[in-house]
Amino acid sequence: MVLAQTIISGLAAGSLYSMVALGLVIIFKATRALNFSYGQMAMLSAFFAFTLLSKLHLPYWAAFLLSLVFAALLATVIRNIIRPIKSSDGMIVGTMAMYMIMTAVAGIIWGWDPFPFPRILSGEPLRVFGLVISQNNVLIFAIAIVLMLLVYLFFKYTMIGTAMRSLSQNPVTTRLMGISSSMLTTATWVLSGVLAGVAGMMVAPTTYLAPDMMASFLMKTFVAAIFGGMTSYPGVVIGGLVLGVTENLVGTYVSSDLKGPFAFLFLVIILLIRPEGIMGKRVRMLGAKPSSAFKKPIDTNRPRLSLPKQLILIAAVFVIPFIFRTNTFLMYFINIVLIYMIIAIGLDVVTGYTGQLSMGHGAMVAIGAYTSALLTMRLGLPFWITIFLAGIVSALFGFLLGTTSLRLTGLFLTITTFGFGDAVPQILLKWDSLTNGFRGLKPPKPSIGAFVFDTDFKFYFIIAVVLIIIITLTSNFLRSKTGRALIALRDSEAGAEMVGINVAKYRILAFVISSFIAGIAGSLYAHMVGYVSPYDFNSTVSRLLLCMIIIGGTCSIPGAITGALLVNAIPQLLADSKNYVDILFGVTLLLFVIFLPNGFASIYEKAGELLKTWFGRLKQHLAEKS
After folding, report:
1. Rounded to an integer, what distance in angstroms lies between the CA atom of residue 85 and that of residue 61?
2. Of 103, 151, 188, 570, which has the fewest CB atoms closer than 10 Å, so is most exposed?
């Protein structure tokens, strides 16, 4: 009886995953990119319906229909905002920016605290053969089946549905037939928006209404979509149901602590065995030329800064703390910025120079932080040893993730890193016996003999030295033969393989180096702050890290440094308007993806070239006069 009840509950959860995943797949088939803002489209639609129900006191059916109209309009607006973005990576980042904007808008209008959403059916649960099934779950089952049927009939028997299928299968032929691909893509977004509206109205009564209500669903809907097949609507529904039942069985019979991170484990298994899903079409995983919005030519022979300039910069780094020594808050802030600079440089190795979009880099920082904290607290090892061990442990996880990436590329690799970043904080939270759970850890401050680095001023010099070492080693590495191989891999895996570059070796190497740097930064963070918890490394951290290298400029160490400074400085400058920080980040990210994909680095590179040209002409003009 317990088994049957567990399966029924799993089918109810799986139906919700299927509903959300259907809309994701519709967009994917039309654009070959994932809409990371889809969950927030559902969330805003649910909030809109709640306002109609609670403020205007409209009947449920009217609020439901109007929320679908709202969702369709919202989808149209988002489609037009990100229309200029052409690459799949750019679409991912663009929709992620919309995710940030919509979350902030909901928080500003309706607040951040969760509250209940009225159920459609609230009567006594049904009892069938001893099983208890709520009326709401029965309704969810019914709507999921009806939606799948309607989507099937729409694409099978309507003219616009047939045109949409044609667009997803062969865009060039569709355009040659005189069909507007732009209008069809907009229609696809509208349909996806309507499905998001339905999903929001179904999910809200089963959980709660809040700006982050869809956060836990996003990863699971990705898993459902990939398991069923990103190109198969029936497969997506099956995938959602299988995931819902399986995670419920794991939570009931294995451990409830595994229910959260189970989706990631399930995802890795799927992607390693059959990445195209059980009903999807086979896809080519290696050898493809990835579509990236952030590529730019890289001149590895560009002259470095002269030795006098390098010495001036290093001297400036060590003078700064003496200027702000008495301002404890500013010293703390500077230390945090320097740590994020280290992380951003490491992330740029795998995302910028290798072209593999990583959305879970915060997890590598978390692994380094916890490794260092546990080794100092449990084994009594000194910080000077644990900082390197933290980098090594993170590098081992990078090796495992890099090994997984051998069968994956592009979209599938991005989802894997996203899942990894989502799973690690959950594991740290649940593994109470090792990590102390939500209470976190308090690692000691490092010391040399009797001298303890117990102030932000003292700790600054440790971070500064590490940053200088990381910059020097990374710069030399990227100019080496191995660094050039990574860049060749980014531009074309097939081309790199043809000239004898071992694709598998260099892919893994990029993840290992990037993770090693993140682990070292995590160790610095843990001991500098003196406290570390799973909440310090949630998915928001990974998004902000990605913002740093995109705003600053990929494939550029100065760009990574600039991005880390800006992303950390903006919230401080807007401390009195924290609700608007995410909106500002989202809008900035959109503007950079659309108009300046190479970030701030491209601005001062171009400015430097112009100044060099101008001074050259001035020098020539003066020489001619003399």
Report:
1. 37
2. 570
pLDDT digits (tens, 9 = 90+) for 524-544: 999 999 999 998 888 888 888
Nearest 5 degrees, angle CA 429-CA 435-CA 436? 85
Amino acid letter for position 90: G
Distance of alpha carbon 592 from alpha carbon 86, whole angstroms: 14
Q: How many helices (H) and strands (E) does the chain have?
A: 25, 4
37: its two tokens? 């803002």
Looking only at the bridges linking them, the beta strands covering 451-452 and 131-133 are: unpaired
Q: How far is CA 583 from CA 521, 577, 588, 590, in A?
A: 28, 11, 8, 11
Query: What mean pLDDT, rounded, does the chain reach?
Result: 82
d(CA 349, CA 513): 8
- Crossing angle of helices 159-169 and 181-206, in 10° steps, is 100
For residues 224-257, one letter each, b for 16 or more C-beta atoms within 10 angstroms of the residue's C-beta and e for the rest, the string is bbbbbbbbbbebbbbbbbbbbbbbbbbbbeeeeb
Mean of pLDDT values over 49-56: 90
User: Tens of pLDDT along 338-392?
Assistant: 999 999 999 988 888 777 788 889 999 999 999 999 999 999 999 999 999 999 9
Q: For CA atoms 355, 356, 361, 365, give the dihedral sign.
A: negative
Check residue 286 and give its pLDDT: 41
Where do runs of H (alpha helix) occur along 405-455?
A: 410-430, 432-435
Residue 606 burial class via C-beta count within 10 angstroms: exposed 0-12, middle 13-18, buried 19 and up? exposed
Q: Looking at residues 258-263, what average pLDDT do you find? A: 76
- Residue 380 identity (one-letter amino acid): G
Selected residue with higher pLDDT from 517 and 180: 517
Structure tokens at 364: 């590598």
Nearest to 384 by CA among 372, 393, 396, 394: 372
What pLDDT is attached to residue 285?
43
Digit-coded pLDDT (tens) for 423-476:
899 889 888 888 988 898 999 999 888 888 989 999 999 999 999 999 989 888
Q: Among the residues of 379-409, which ranges form H helices?
A: 383-404
485-522 pLDDT, tens digit per residue, is 877 776 666 677 777 777 778 888 889 999 999 999 99
Domain spans in the chain, listed from the N-terminal domain onward: 2-273, 307-323+330-539
**Which amino acid belongs to residue 62?**
A
Structure tokens, 620: 């020539």
As a three-state string, the secondary structure of 510-569 is HHHHHHHHHHHHHHHHHHHHCCECHHHHCHHHHHHHHHHHHHHCCCCHHHHHHHHHHHHH
Burial class (CB in 10 A: 0-12, 13-18, 19+), 551: buried
56 vs 67: CA distance, rounded Å: 13
How far is residue 226's CA from residue 368's CA, in Å, rounded to a whole number? 30
**Token pair for 605:** 């590179």
Total Cβ atoms within 10 A of residue 106: 21
Could you tell me if 583 and 105 are in contact, meaning their C-beta atoms sit under 8 angstroms apart? Answer: yes
Closest CA to 514 of 313, 367, 304: 367
318: enclosing H helix or E strand? helix 307-323
* C-alpha–C-alpha distance, residues 592 and 585, integer Å: 11
Q: Which two tokens stand for residue 267?
A: 């995802």
